[in-house]
Structures are given as C-alpha cells and as structure tokens.
Description:
This protein is of the alpha/beta class. The protein has five domains: 6-108, DNA repair protein MutS, domain I (MutS, DNA mismatch repair protein, domain I, 3-Layer(aba) Sandwich); 116-253, MutS, connector domain (Nucleotidyltransferase, domain 5); 285-392 and 531-557, MutS, DNA mismatch repair protein, Chain A, domain 3 (Orthogonal Bundle), CATH 1.10.1420.10; 423-526, MutS, DNA mismatch repair protein, Chain A, domain 3 (Orthogonal Bundle); 564-816, P-loop containing nucleotide triphosphate hydrolases (Rossmann fold). Helices cover 44% and strands 17% of the residues. It has a seven-stranded mixed beta sheet, sandwiched between helices. Strands 3-4-2-1-5-6 form a six-stranded mixed beta sheet, with helices on both faces. It starts with 5 loop residues before the first helix and ends with a helix. Mean pLDDT is 87; it is low at 654-659 and 795-827. The site of adenosine-5'-triphosphate has 14 residues, from α21. It comes from Terribacillus aidingensis. Belongs to the DNA mismatch repair MutS family.
Amino acid sequence: MAGYTPMMQQYLRIKADYKDAFLFFRLGDFYEMFFDDALKATKELEITLTSKNAGVEEKVPMCGVPYHSADNYIRILVSRGFKVAICEQVEDPKTAKGVVKREVVQLITPGTVMENGMLDEKENNYLAAVNENADHTYSLVYHDLSTGENRAALLEGGFDTLLSELYNQPVREIVVSEQLDQPLQDELKMRLGVTLSYQEPGVSNSLSQEKLAGGVTDTRLLDCFFMLLHYVERTQKRGLDHLKPLQVMELKSYMTLDMYSKRNLELTETILKKGKHGSLLWVLDDTVTAMGARMLKKWLERPLLQKEAITRRQDLVQAFLDHFFERDTIRQLLQSVYDVERLSGRVAYGNVNARDLLQLKRTLAKLPELKQVLSDFAEAEVQRMGQELDPLPALHDYLEKSLHEDAPIGVREGGLLKDGFHAQLDTYRDASRNGKQWIAALEQQERIETGIKSLKVGYNKVFGYYIEVTRANLHLLPEGKYERKQTLSNAERFITPELKEKEALILEAQEKSVELEYELFLEIRDHVKTYIPALQQLADQISQLDVLQSFAEVSEKQRYARPTFNSSRSVSITEGRHPVIEKVMKSGEFVPNDVQMDQGSDILLITGPNMSGKSTYMRQVALTSIMAQIGCFVPSEAADLPLFDQIFTRIGAADDLVSGQSTFMVEMLESRHALEHATDRSLILLDEIGRGTSTYDGMALAQSIIEYVHDNIHAKTLFSTHYHELTTLDENLEKLRNVHVRAEEHEGNVVFLHQIREGAADESYGIHVAKLAKLPDSLIERASAILQELEGQGQKLEASAPKAVQEDMQLSFFAEPEPKKEETVKRSDKRAEQVLTELSSINLMEQTPMEAMNLLYKLQQMAAKK
Ligand SMILES: Nc1ncnc2c1ncn2[C@@H]1O[C@H](COP(=O)(O)OP(=O)(O)OP(=O)(O)O)[C@@H](O)[C@H]1O
Ligand SMILES: [Mg+2]
C-alpha cells in the first residue's frame, strides 16, 4: 500500500473487507470504482473507463456513476448476481481533517435487496442459508428481508433432497460456511445459478435471537438460522424490527414435488419462455393484491397433505363461489389494499415516507367494511375470518389525525403534517402564514402609496422578498425609501428594511417548522413500528382471503368442480381437462377425458399416435391433483382423488444444458429419482421413457421400469410409450391396464379425436404426422414404402423383446442379449467388438444403479459412434 495517496490507502483498506463485492466509493457527487472493480464495471454497466493518479507510478483504472442515478446501476449489478457495497462519507468534508472518514453503510446483495424498484411485487425474494450437520442432515433456512419471513427445514435425504427443495423454492442467494464441501458449493452455484455468500456459524449478533427463535429448540436449525441472521445484520446495518420468529416447516406435511416436476409441469413458469404466461400459476392467479399473488405462489409450491386443512380451504372457496355479489364487493375492497407486508419491512428499515403511511391509512379505512362483509356470511369459516380481522382503528385514527392528505414524497421539506396535530408546529406555521399575509397586504399598500398599479411583491431564493417596479414607472418611486437589489431588462427590484425584517421572521418560522415536522414524522414512524406484528398478521389474513377468492373466481369462470378425497388410493376423474391447454384453446374445443384407476389398477400404459394427446392426458392428472391439494377446485365434472404424498415426472426432452447432461442421462436421473423415493401413495408420470436411446435399449429399460414400479413401488403411474410391443405386458402384470388415444384415418389423413379409450392402440401414425408437418411428398412416399417393406419382412419387434430380470434392476439393463440384438450389432463389427469387450469386463454385482446407468450411457455412445 505504501506509495498510494492517503485516500487510495483508505480505499484499499475498505476494499479488503469486501473482496466479493463492487465497492461504490463515494467521492463528492460520484460513486467511484477502482482497479478490477472498475474494469469489470465498465463492461457490465457500459460506462467509460478512466484512470486516476494514486501516488504510484502507474495510474489506477477508475470509473464512476453519479450519486443521484446510482440506483439504476446497482439494480443492474444485483440482478446479475453481483453484490454492491455502498461506501459513504461519514463526516462533513468541510470540517474533516485529512482524508474524509468513509464507511460501508450497506451491502446490497441479490438476496437482500429492499429497494422498491428492485423487487418484483408479486414474488418473494428469498435468501437461504444452508448448513451441513454432523449427522449428515442439512439445515435450510429461508429468509425474505422485505417481508421479514423466516422458515427452516431439516432435510434428511442427503444433498439431492436439498437440491430438490431448492429447485422447488427458488432463492437468489445462499449463505454457507466456508467449510462446506467445495464440490457441494460448486453444485449449488452451477445447478441453481445462485450467488453464494459466506458466514461462519457460531458468531453472536445483537438481534434478539431468543425471541426470533420462536420456541424452536433444534440446535441444528438454530445454528443455521443464527448464521443467516448474522449475515443479514452484518450486511444491512439497519433496523430489523420486522423480522418474524422462525417457523419450522415439516416438509413431510406437504406434497413433495421432485426437482423436475415443478419445471416439467410448468407450475409457475413455462419451460421454453421462462415466463408466467402459460403456466398453472397464470391460470389460477386472479388475485387482486400483490400479497395475495405472493401467497398463491407459495401455496402452489407446497400442496397440502392433511385433509382437514384442504377441506377448510375448500369450504371457504365454496362460500365465495356461492356468493357472487359479496365476492365482487370483497374484490373491490381488496383493490385499495396496499402491500402492508412489505410496508412493515420498510417501516422497520426506516425508509417509508408519508405517502406510504397514507396508503396504509387508506387500507385500514377499508377494513371495517371488509370485516362486515365477511361477518355477514352464513358460513361459519368466513364469519370467523371476519371476526379475526382487526382493522386497527387506533392506528387509523392516529394517521388520520397526523398526516396531511397531500404530503409530498420527500420527508425533509415539510408539508407532511396536518394543522392541529402539534401545538408548536401550529405556532410556527401561524407565524409564517401571518408574515405572508402581511406581505400580501404590503403589496396593496405600496401600490396605493406610489400609484404604480403594476407594482409586485415577489420572492426568489437568492434575494428573498423584493418589490418589483417596471422601468417605465421608476420615476414614480420616492427617493431614499427603497434599496435597489437587482436590475432586469425592463424592471428593477428593491427591498426595504421593513420587508427584510418580516422576511427573517417568516423564514425562521418556516425553517423551524420543517425541522420540527421531520422530527415529528420520525416519531410517527416509530409509533407505526409498534404495530408491525399486528400489520404482519393483517397481511397474512388478507393474503389468504385474496387467494381463496381468486380460487372461487377462477373456479367459476373455468367451471371447475370441488374434488373429494379417498383413502383407498383410487383416482376417479370424470371429464377431466388440462387447465392450461383448455384456457388457451377456444372454448369447447378441448376434449375432456375420464381417468379411472381404482385399487386394482396402478399403472396405465398409454399408447396412441404422435400429437394425439398422451402427454396432455398425463399432465392433466398431475395438475388436477396439485390443484386439489392446494384447496382449489379442479377442471372436471367430478373428481375423487387420493392425497398424493409426492409427484414424480419424467416428461419431454428437458435437456439439462447448463449442467451438461445429455437427454438420455437426464431421463435416467429423473427415473432413478422417482424409483428411489416414490411410495404407494405417490403419482409417477413417465412419458416415453427410453425414447432417447436405441430401440432395444429403450424398450428394455421401459419394460423393466414398469415391472419395477408394478412389483416394488405400487405408485399410481401413467406411462406413455411408442413401443407397441409393451402393450402385451398386461398379460403378466395384474395391475397394469392399457388405454389409448383414439385417432381415425380419413382419406389417408389422421384425424385426432383426443379421446382416451380402453385397450392398446393399433398403429403409430407417425408418417401421417410427418405429412401433417408438410415434409416433402417424395420423402413421405419413401417412408411409407420402407414401412411396408419392414412390416413385410416381419422385422417388427417382438413384444417380449429383452426379458428383464425382475428382482434386480441393474441386471435388467443388460439382460441376456437376444439373437436379434446381435443382428443389429453386426452392422459394425469393430464397434460391436469394443462394446462387447467393455461389457464383459464389468463386474455387475459391484455396480450401483447410478454407475450402471452411466456405463450404459457410455456403451450407447460407443455403439452410436460412426
Ligand atoms: N384432450 C384434448 N382436446 C383437444 N386438444 C388436445 C387434447 N389433448 C391434446 N390436444 C392437442 O394436441 C396437441 C398434442 O398433444 P400431446 O403433446 O399431448 O400429444 P402426444 O400424444 O403426447 O404427442 P407425442 O407422441 O408427439 O409426444 C396438444 O398440444 C393439444 O393442442
Ligand atoms: Mg407426448
């Protein structure tokens, strides 16, 4: 550091503590960045790079952003996953001796942004902390700084379960200890694309930990929670009175969606466009408030398992559905409800202005009416909602009495408070108003005395009050009384001692009143702070009400039916529909289908031509179950469902490009995950398993997976396939049933009827689809010819292809090679030899399923090589 100017030394000292952040170093009206920060920032922010003399020979790279527009730049950096440390001058440069003292006053990180413009109002912004415990469980804490929410969960199923959970509930940033295994850290960063931050556990902080622990005693959870709290306190350096006590999430009391399902089923965003439009959330969201929208998303991410809790929600939805007019009134009242939840956070944080508090007042003003509407319902649950709603009349009256209706955005220029709220403030205001009246009267009087009708008394910031006379009238002014202050092109401005005396009084009163107003406003803010827990409770009640009315609204518009639940593992859906597809289609076009799976039927094997609706049918079962378990009604005429504990999906070509896995590998990973964790209370969707590999491989895998599920898991399973050969499985597998999607051939074209029927489909119609897609005619003809030839040669695959060894999945992948398989292999003897050598050198008994799958993948790659 020697050789640098004192200021640069100061910079380097501070920067050493914030190595992983951009240090915004305040210099006058700019935040400056130096060295690497400057080089990176010019790229990210597209601002000019300059350099600064810093005492040493070589100039230091530098760039800067103006202080008043810094928010924008900070937003860009944070949204890209960076952190920004704000370093301010903490003493007055005028009185400072030597270098002005500077300190970092806030560290803004992706998981801790509070600034309004940087938050999506309909989404929570979660920061998480993860800790690996000595017993190899993981502790996970979620925290939303803007709402004060704190939730913890203990994950016992290893790192995969942790990843699954974090997929399901996305976070922007994760706090971990530097001791966490490096590969795990990399995995978190890579797979989830989050910012990692470091904090060692076991450091104490000044927050009232005991209160925030909320009665939780598990030290594994508390250690992780305190680690997170410490991180938040260290970075924010501000009031955190709005933090709510820790709540423990029993993950077992919610339906688990594996890490693939939320994405595959497009619950909150679509796979392709990553937007809400086209997702289930998009269909279900008819909430009125931002708080309601956030809660709906949370519910969707965690469907319930307890029948009582679901029934309670259903009862409320039913009540709102049955009372259209009341629901309409409720929706109207909710229109004027402000985001009380985030407001509480900002009250604690100290950045609310008078306008925010006025919004709060207007919200409170609507509550008595809302309470009344709810209490007037005949249904007991709704009545109770009304009774439990506390409109906080004392707070409303206080804000009504104190805040001026037209208060400005700023809090330091006065005009915030009403007359009559505070005696001293009134005195100052009177003085200033009287003075202004006196000045108005003076204008009148001067006009009479001088006879100049156009004489004006005005005010500007430089000269204060003045008397203005046009040049033409100057001769009318008496000598000596007026002192010339300013000359304009066609007028002169004067002052008198009398005028200046009054001016001093007015300005003093004004200054004092503005100062006092600011102090009083801080008092008001502190007073509102005492209401934070009550406001948070209110926010929670209003959010719930909003989600439930939204369910009612959507259920009415989309004609959903109230589902019932059974404990006999039976699925019975009459005329079920796919909620998203039916919404984007013109009404009446979607073909409803039944789903019947009683105790005796666990697996539906679905066949049918391409584009006929197999995937749609499978997804609609999963979406219907999820909707049912969050308490919403479902797209069908009637539905009786089990309470599924978990949903697993393997759908579509979801190449995991980010982590560099092939389609087939992803397919195998997703299948493994399902086979490992599913129970007889789960729902599994397997869409065309084995499609990503050669026919024999694929079919062998598909069959053995079906058998494994059938014999060992007993989960309700929907399995679609193009391998018609699999449809004979129902002969041996008692709980498997064939269904197919009907299509008809009409004058050489396929007509999709989208109707599900019992039994297997007879033809694949693939070539017809190619025709629909308008591939060249000659190509289509050639394909038909080849098909006929193949069928003629009897080369269609036999249904019983590879016989799987049922007790052992690992073996089933490599079941005794059938003679036919060798025929395929002959095509390239050399390659075949390689594969065979590799195959024979493996000791299968020592392989884990995962290793076997990797190997299979490798073999397949070898076989496919040209
Ligand atoms: N029940 C239905 N009513 C009306 N249209 C439907 C229905 N089911 C599916 N469709 C339409 O058919 C299209 C194809 O459906 P889907 O993707 O489910 O077919 P698929 O059988 O899975 O095809 P592939 O074999 O190519 O995967 C859908 O995008 C939708 O537009
Ligand atoms: Mg499909």
